[in-house]
Amino acid sequence: MRTPALVVLAWGVWLAGAQVAGAADDQPSPAPSPQLAAEGKALYGQFCRNCHGVNMVNPGTSSFDLRKFPPDEHARFVNSVTHGKNTMPAWGDILKPEEIEALWAYVRTGGKT
Ligand code: HEC
């Protein structure tokens, strides 16, 4: 077989292109720091757990399953949390932007910390 190297190369170029296209819409978030995620977890316990469940395991209410939140949609996360969405309250007056970033770090762990 002689093709795989070329196929892998083509795939890599395609992936790089896809990432650039995504970046135009939203900033790719860096990997969450464990410390920030821990802060987010504490905030989550205080403000979000009642509706979104312990460790983001959705209790079967109508709230969104945060483990399924797309990891590349940082802007959507910040917007929904800051301004609220449908029956989800807005948090922009309660949480500081840094705290929303900490929550984002926690959400990106998928509740595994
Ligand atoms: C009073 C209950 C309640 C609380 C408290 C709550 N949420 Fe929600 N949340 C919801 C509901 C209900 C939805 C589904 C909204 C919809 O799509 O109709 C939701 C949706 C979301 C979404 C998905 C929004 C989207 O773009 O689809 C995110 C992200 C989210 N919540 C984060 C949080 C965070 C972070 C906190 C804590 C600061 C929090 N929520 C606290 C009820 C709540």
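Confidence is low (pLDDT under 50) at residues 8-25.
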